[in-house]
């Protein structure tokens, strides 16, 4: 007696076109598209329960991924960075706010991010933005299973080498006045 092959509900047959797969992809036996893979990852938990990923979770992932890119000095505008520096000096605060300069929108299957970036002087801004975008997309998609539909990057400032905030003021001119 032969038993019929078991059909796994979340794994479509290769010859059956799926909503996110064109008929030509199914007929040609092409590997699943990125959209289909993301939909499949999202569909499995939906069969047994709901998964909700908070905006703050995706903001942290995106912020950390952006900061990993060489040439990204900081995230956030001048005011946000100044406020963040004050907060970091408050006793009891262990780490900086990694969501500073990051805003995201999270849906059931997709996410979008807006980043405000400060880059190092002398480096190609377009290359830094492209590497930042790629790193954020990879990290968010890998950790959450969400499809990242866009990562908008606004370069808000360029960090100059002589603008180091940890640099001590001139001992002979502590006020920083240009004239005496």
UniProtKB/TrEMBL annotation:
Pfam family, one: Asp23
Region (Disordered): 1-45, 158-180
Xref: InterPro entries: Asp23
Extent of Low complexity compositional bias: 15-32
Origin: domain of life: Bacteria
Assigned protein family: Belongs to the asp23 family.
Protein name: Asp23/Gls24 family envelope stress response protein
Organism: Streptomyces iconiensis
């Amino acid at each position: 007696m032969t038993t019929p092959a078991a059909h796994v509900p979340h794994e479509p047959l290769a010859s059956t076109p799926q909503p996110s797969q064109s008929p030509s992809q199914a007929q040609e036996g092409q590997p699943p598209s990125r959209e289909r893979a993301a939909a499949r990852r999202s569909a499995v938990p939906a069969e047994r329960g709901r998964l909700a990923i908070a905006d703050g979770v995706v903001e942290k992932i995106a912020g950390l991924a952006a900061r990993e890119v060489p040439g990204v000095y900081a995230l956030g505008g001048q005011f946000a960075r100044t406020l963040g520096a004050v907060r970091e000096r408050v006793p009891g605060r262990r780490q900086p706010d990694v969501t500073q300069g990051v805003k995201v929108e999270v849906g059931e299957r997709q996410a979008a991010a807006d980043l405000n970036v400060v880059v190092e002087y002398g480096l190609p801004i377009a290359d830094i933005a492209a590497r930042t975008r790629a790193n954020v997309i990879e990290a968010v998609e890998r950790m959450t299973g969400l499809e990242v539909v866009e990562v908008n990057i606004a370069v808000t400032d360029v960090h100059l080498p002589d603008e180091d905030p940890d640099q001590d003021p001139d001992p002979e001119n502590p006020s920083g006045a240009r004239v005496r």
